[in-house]
Design a protein that fits this description.
The chain folds into two domains: 74 residues, Glutaredoxin (3-Layer(aba) Sandwich), CATH 3.40.30.10; 108 residues, Glutathione S-transferase Yfyf (Class Pi), Chain A, domain 2 (Up-down Bundle), CATH 1.20.1050. Helix 1 packs parallel to helix 3, helix 1 runs antiparallel to helix 7 and helix 4 packs parallel to helix 7. It has 200 residues and is of the alpha+beta class. The chain is built from ten helices and four strands; from the N terminus they run βαβαββαααααααα. The protein is globular and about 45 Å long. Strands 2-1-3-4 form a four-stranded mixed β-sheet, with helices on one face. It binds glutathione. Glutathione binds next to loops.
């Protein structure tokens, strides 16, 4: 298999962490590219022009990080990142993580490509409130991290979103405002899969 990615995309990082957590690293070659510069190989595989993209062993191009994560999870079924006995809680957490990732990523891209008026718009204010509400809920609900319990796709998604906030929107000040969540992030990101995929 072949994974198209870069070093700053939270979506790509999530799929790479899944590769590592599932022990699939020997089966997945990494292709580093710049989606913002219309990489030709990327466009040939994914006309939408976004990463991540996973080329399967059959040569099919899969896009959308959650679909890729689900596919990789099935390539090495145990232990599952979406265990049957915790499925609802895990999917709930995946939703929060992806929502947080989307709101944060859109904020960063808008700031980069749009003017000040757009960045003060109703939409951007809604995104900012969505980030705050989601952080508040996660801070209230998340348990202390324990490496004795198998990591899930929900954990990976939320942790990558928090990592992205720390990387690109440090003014959110998660560490000061949500110490419970920050302690959880600091613990889970000690895993090799997070250490070897740090944003840069
Ligand atoms: N919903 C997609 C989002 C992917 C995405 O937005 N990727 C960004 C990098 S973080 C990208 O490649 N953007 C290039 C573009 O929009 O032209 C997923 O989950 O994979």
């Amino acid at each position: 298999m072949k994974l198209f990615l870069n070093k700053t995309s939270p979506y790509a990082r999530m799929t790479r962490i899944v590769v590592l957590e599932k022990g699939l690293e020997k089966r997945v070659a990494l292709y580093w590219c710049d989606p913002w510069n219309d990489d030709e190989q990327l466009l040939a595989e994914n006309p939408v022009g976004r990463i991540p993209v996973l080329i399967t062993d059959q040569g099919t191009a899969l896009s959308e990080s959650l679909l890729i994560a689900g596919y990789l999870n099935e390539q090495q079924p145990t232990p599952s990142l979406v265990p049957e006995d915790r499925k609802e809680q895990v999917l709930h957490r995946v939703g929060l993580g992806q929502g947080l990732m989307d709101a944060s990523f859109t904020t960063v891209i808008s700031r980069k490509h749009l003017d000040a008026q757009a960045n003060g718009s109703v939409l951007s204010q809604r995104r900012s409130r969505a980030i705050d509400r989601t952080l508040e809920q996660l801070d209230r609900c998340i348990n202390r991290y324990s490496s004795d319990i198998d990591i899930t796709l929900g954990d990976i998604s939320v942790a990558v979103a928090l990592e992205y906030l720390a990387f690109r929107l440090p003014e959110t000040a998660v560490a000061d405002r949500y110490p419970n969540l920050e302690a959880w992030r600091n613990a889970i990101t000690q895993r090799t899969s997070f250490m070897t995929t740090a944003f840069s």
